[in-house]
């Protein structure tokens, strides 16, 4: 079944499995394409845009918050929000049949307190990790997002778990001492790498496994002392590497050399691992998943991003653990039959609700715990609830909104504050034209630099003492001011890595480019001509092989 998206007009296809799922969820088939539906969810997930200057409106403590200080929401620190010091039921209001449902829900969302940042209760507390979001179980973390548990002494990263001493990582698991790398599994002392596993003491690797002391290599397996894929003696290898590492100028020069060198080697159509009948990228140990990115241990899941352990779910963004029959959810898991909701846990039969825990049969609720038959936080009898719910659903069906996420005009965040901008970048004009908000006043400073970035020492060994910790630097790309932390400086010295000349946000953007887009194209294997589905666009310069041809090439 083909139809045109009512938002962008692009054609998209719903197959029989899609239609069967929507029938199971008792919602109409969507009239909005997967990309536009992702944007609608993603503007409700601000991971990296944090603000200082707000205070908990219950205890008065200063907090770091994902909510702009001028946003209309009441903010509590995480401790207060998760405590019994307040009662979400006290905000209950009667449902008005003569007033649109989403108008009433929006009014409720502005009254019920919000947690300053997102933390799932299942991953443990964050210790000495104030500047983290969508994270739990982290110790001594700074600017960590979608990370945990069991991370320690990590910073400037997204998607870490069971890690120690990681800086500038994206999707890193079970590793230590990793810098500026993407998709790293069980590695130690690895820098500037992508898609590597079980590697040690190496830098500038792409698609390598079980390598040690390798530099600037692509598609190697079980190798040591290789430089640009050529075997060398230990002495020759050390000499070549020592001429580069430590120097900012020489590292930047080698990045260009390695980029050109890497284009000589084939890339696999995707980075999926131990997955069956799956289409997407970075899909691990999953089955029957389509149009997904960065998911693990999922089954029969579609159009989902950054989810784990979900089954029979569509359009899941984040969390997903032990989720079943969830549709259009953000940060939700451990539950069944959840529709169009944000941060729902240990609950079932919940629709269009926000931050609901251990509840059942709720629609249009915010912050409810142990609720049953609730609408706008008010509890009803079963009969009253079913009657009102039917009224709400009929209204949403008439508006062709039932089965979709919350309307974009209700979003908690502006487009450029959220992960929507990470994955589908828009200009301000484009975002506004698509019905999203835009925030001009993102918290940052410019023009406050105390040192010319060009005057930074070329090597970390030339950074004498800790004076640099007092300096204010200016990003060479966006001019945003940033500082070096003591934890960061210690890491650079230990790893012999020069000081960064870009701010975290530009470095994060660079890693997203290296990860690849959340968009897939049909093209042909460069060796056997088989049709493949990949996020390497047809006009990209990389040589792309199907999995079979790639395996034959590498092994």
Largest sheet: 13 strands, mixed
DSSP strand tally: 34
- Estimated share of beta-strand residues: 25-35%
Estimate the helix proportion, in percent.
10-25%
Q: Characterize the overall form.
A: globular
How many helices in DSSP terms?
12
Structural class: alpha/beta
Low-confidence stretches: none
Distance between the termini: 41 Å
- Our Rg estimate from Cα atoms comes to 24 Å
User: What would the average pLDDT be, to the nearest integer?
Assistant: 96
Walk me through the topology.
Layout: E1 2-4, E2 11-13, H1 16-25, H2 34-42, E3 51-55, E4 62-65, E5 75-76, H3 78-81, H4 101-109, E6 114-115, E7 132-133, E8 138-139, E9 142-145, E10 151-152, E11 155-161, E12 163-173, E13 176-185, E14 188-191, E15 194-197, E16 200-209, E17 212-218, E18 224-227, E19 230-231, H5 234-242, H6 248-262, E20 266-268, E21 279-284, E22 290-296, E23 299-302, E24 310-319, E25 323-342, E26 345-351, E27 360-363, E28 372-375, E29 378-379, H7 382-398, H8 419-423, H9 428-433, E30 473-474, E31 481-482, H10 486-495, H11 504-515, E32 521-524, E33 531-534, E34 543-545, H12 547-554
Parallel strand pairs: 5-6, 7-9, 8-10, 9-11, 10-12, 11-12, 12-13, 13-14, 13-15, 14-16, 15-16, 16-17, 17-18, 20-34, 21-22, 23-24, 24-25, 25-26, 26-27, 27-28
Antiparallel strand pairs: 1-2, 3-4, 18-19, 28-29, 30-31, 32-33
């Amino acid at each position: 079944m083909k139809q045109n998206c009512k938002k962008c007009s692009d054609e998209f296809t719903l197959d029989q499995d899609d239609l069967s799922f929507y029938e199971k969820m008792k919602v109409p088939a969507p009239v909005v394409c997967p990309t536009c539906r992702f944007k609608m969810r993603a503007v409700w997930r601000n991971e990296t845009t944090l603000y200082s200057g707000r205070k908990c409106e219950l205890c008065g403590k200063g907090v770091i918050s994902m909510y702009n200080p001028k946003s209309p929401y009441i903010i509590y620190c995480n401790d207060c929000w998760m405590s019994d010091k307040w009662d979400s039921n006290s905000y209950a209001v009667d449902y008005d049949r003569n007033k649109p449902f989403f108008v009433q829900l929006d009014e409720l969302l502005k009254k019920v307190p919000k947690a300053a940042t997102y933390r799932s209760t299942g991953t443990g507390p964050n210790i000495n990790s104030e500047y983290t979001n969508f994270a739990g179980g982290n110790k001594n973390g700074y600017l960590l997002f979608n990370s945990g548990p069991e991370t320690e002494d990590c910073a400037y990263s997204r998607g870490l778990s069971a890690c120690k001493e990681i800086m500038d990582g994206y999707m890193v698991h079970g590793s230590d001492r990793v810098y500026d790398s993407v998709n790293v599994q069980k590695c130690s002392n690895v820098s500037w790498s992508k898609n590597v596993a079980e590697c040690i003491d190496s830098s500038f690797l792409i698609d390598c496994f079980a390598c040690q002391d390798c530099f600037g290599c692509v598609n190697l397996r079980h190798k040591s002392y290789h430089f640009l894929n050529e075997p060398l003696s230990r002495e020759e290898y050390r000499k070549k590497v020592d001429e580069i590492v430590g120097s900012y100028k020489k590292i930047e020069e080698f990045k260009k050399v390695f980029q050109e060198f890497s284009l000589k080697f084939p890339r696999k159509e995707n980075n999926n691992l131990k997955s069956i009948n799956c289409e997407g990228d970075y899909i691990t140990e999953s089955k029957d998943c389509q149009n997904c990115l960065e998911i693990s241990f999922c089954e029969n899941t579609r159009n989902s991003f950054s989810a784990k352990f979900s089954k029979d779910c569509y359009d899941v963004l984040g969390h997903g653990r032990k989720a079943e029959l969830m549709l259009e959810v953000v940060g939700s898991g451990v539950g069944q039959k959840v529709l169009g909701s944000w941060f729902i846990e240990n609950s079932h039969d919940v629709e269009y609700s926000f931050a609901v825990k251990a509840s059942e049969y709720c629609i249009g609720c915010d912050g409810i715990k142990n609720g049953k038959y609730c609408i706008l936080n008010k509890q009803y009898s079963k009969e009253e609830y079913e009657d009102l719910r039917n009224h709400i659903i009929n209204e949403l069906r008439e508006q062709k909104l039932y089965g979709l996420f919350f309307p974009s005009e209700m979003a908690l965040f502006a487009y450029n504050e959220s992960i929507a901008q990470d994955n589908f970048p828009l200009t301000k004009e484009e975002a506004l034209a698509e019905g999203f908000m835009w925030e001009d006043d993102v918290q940052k400073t410019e023009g406050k630099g105390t040192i010319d970035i060009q005057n930074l020492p070329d090597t970390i060994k030339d950074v004498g003492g800790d004076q640099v910790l007092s300096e204010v630097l200016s990003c060479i790309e966006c001019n945003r001011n940033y500082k070096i932390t003591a934890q960061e400086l210690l890491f650079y010295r230990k790893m012999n890595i020069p000081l960064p000349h870009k701010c975290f946000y530009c470095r994060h953007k660079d890693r997203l480019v290296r990860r690849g887009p959340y968009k897939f194209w049909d093209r042909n294997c460069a060796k056997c001509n088989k049709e493949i589905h990949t996020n390497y666009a047809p006009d990209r310069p990389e040589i792309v092989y199907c999995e079979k041809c790639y395996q034959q090439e590498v092994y």
